[in-house]
Amino acid sequence: MEPGGNSINHTEKAMAFLGAGIVLAALILGYRLYALGVVLAAAVAWLLYRWQMLAVSNTDGVPPQKATNRLIIRSLIRMLILFSLLGLSILGGKLFLLGVFTGLLLQVLTYMGQSILIIFRKGGTA
Questions:
Q1: pTM
Q2: What's the rounded Cα separation, in Å, for the pair 117 and 15?
Q3: How many angstroms separate the CA atoms of 37 and 86, rounded?
Q4: How far apart are CA 114 and CA 108, in angstroms?
């Protein structure tokens, strides 16, 4: 996240683009529950990501130890919420569960895609 914490960064744009593509493909193929799971989980994951990044940017100017503690606590809360969401999503069926899982993994998929692009741009060298 950029300083100030209010702008959308490149990773978030890539996540939105990838998520929209997945949802569009799912809807075209007729998997509405899957698409719904992706949308809901991606929205929750994005909000929690932004909330966590506010702790990283430390706009309050708190001492480093307190900022670190805040980040760790937010990370644990974020994981607890995401795992709970994943666990509860089984109530919506297998397709919905898979959609939620996909939505939660959009950030990881985006980072992997960006890493591959960097490798190709460098010609596969370190």
A1: 0.78
A2: 15
A3: 10
A4: 10
